[in-house]
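Quick one: structure for this chain?
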Amino acid sequence: MRLKKTLLLFENDFQRRTRDNDEDIPLLRDEEIDGDDGPQTPSSQQFNVIRRVYHQDVLNKDADYHLPEKPLSYSAKKAVQSCGFGDCLFNSLPIIKWLPAYKPKTDLIGDLVAGATTAVMHIPQGMAYALLAQVPPIIGLYMAFFPVLVYVVFGTSPHVSMGTFAVACLMAGKVVTEHAAHEVSVNGTDIAEATLQMTSQYSHVQVLSTLTFAVGLIQIMMWVLRLGAVSTLLSEPLVSGFTTAASLHVLASQVKDLFGIRLPKLGSNYKVVLTVIEVFKNMSNLNWAALIISFITCLVISLNNELLKPWVSKRSRVPVPIELLAIVIGTLVSKFVDLKTNYGLSLVGTIPTGLPVPEVPPMQLLPDIALDAFTITMVTYTISMSMSLIFAAKEKYEVDANQELLALGASNMFGAFFTCAPMCASLSRSYIQYQAGGKTGITSVVSGVLILCVLLWVGPFFELLPRCVLASIIAVSLKGMFMQVTELAKFWRLSKLDALVWLATFLTTVLIDIDIGLGAGLLASVGALFVRSQRPYTCLLGRVLDTDLYLDIKRYRAADELPGVKIFHYCGGLNFASKNLFRATLFRKIGYLKETDEGNLTNKSESYEWDSTLGRKINCVIIDATALSYVDAPGIKSLLSAQQELVSSHITVLLAGANGPVLEMIEKYNSLESEQLQVETFPTVHDAVVYYKMLEIKKEPTITIAT
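Got it. Here's what it folds into:
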């Protein structure tokens, strides 16, 4: 049976409610009318709604409208209840939730395989990325152990692989280079024995540990202030452009090891450009042995990634540990061929065994590196959260942004006492860990145990490893970030502003420096937001057939304007920044702003030339405020000014569909200002249209403002 529901308003009730508004909601009745048999869909059902034309104040009374209020005592009580010691401890230690519910039968095998796989990747990447931070390779292995175990306790994402990350280590290396006492060779153990002056000079490791402590401290402060959403300040185009450009900085820092040449110390600005110039100047000093080893290593790893890895992934969850094989084979070749003596290759150097003794970072350095620490905090937190959200969406679980701040902050502060660099999620390791079957934080525990074995017994084996092998591993691992340059075409098709943000961030970062590029990207993002706020969606609406639907007349051919009525739709906020744009766009759309023959605006009153004949063409202007998100006092003044201009030309102005906060703001404005915006409100555009037609029928000259 086809169902046609008709909502009828009794005529006697309608007449009574028209005279007296003190009753409650009108009585409604549903009627079932016979129709054609067959399955019914929502689009095939018909609803005839018969009701009175509502003024907003009448609707507020009928619907029992009231302003939501939350007393201070209620808010304070709610805050105290939500911060109970038990709940606070339970929420701050996610391990209390997931560890008792751990299922060894279903999760243990996957965690063991993924943990071993991740540990195999940690070894070469940790040693290689530590060089970017201007510290010995052993520091990278410390980062795969100490902070990772702390993250297991506090973190909410079991699938991300925390530890070293190329961009984070590069940014840390820049700070180390600027504030370290002197350049210390990472081939020996003298890095821990640099001459210290408590006022201004610190060793590389001390600068790095202080920077890591500062990053962790900032993250803890952000957790206390519940600023987990701050990562949204870095937009996708900004992050993409920044990481792509930073990867070029990473590659430039490894050129000297890839080619086996010595480069002079370069300034922090224009480093990529100056590095390219210096490389060409020193081509005559090229070490062919280093170049050949680098080429072979890059070729083998690339062939594995492009050909062998896809083939293996279809048959096994465990990938080929090509990076680990590269450093093992490189070490063995160096040992038996004596690459340092015979060919002059730079080696990794002394790698101590055992665990480091915890040391307190020099806190006197904190003020000098605070700004750099904040920059690294934003970058590492944004990248880590992005990776966490990707896996959370795949596995259908939630990631607490504020809890991640606590996890990263606690991990970094703990790692700072063991000379670790700022921690970040690794894109490549995280995907491998996920594909290998990692389910819980036990994966990181297994990985940490294997790294501990390397620290205690295996470390010295890699002392003869050529640095060009590590540089090759870094260079190949950057492919994913290099390929992000293709996203520029996507951003260009989606939004020209996003593409400009990407270009501004990328070019500034590449040509000048990392921190300046990030600042330029932030400014470009804020500028893009401002430009968008100055270009809101506006249009004229027309009625579709004989319905109560009003659509954009430029996009819908069936939408026809009503004779003598202009319906102006405005989408966005009406505030001090957009008030002039709103006024000008309104007058231009309805034809009240007259354009000269040359296409320029001629001033008559302030900045406009009015069409004096418009009052004979248009009798009513309805401003559709259904998409008006916010209005402030200057915005209301602009609305009042526009209304007065139109009323002076004998044009009725109605404001329809305004939401509660907008109406409340207008009411507050009227209570404070002498020149008030007296409004007669309507909940929908159709109410305003029908009301205006009733006025025309009665032929009573009335000037009204309705929302």
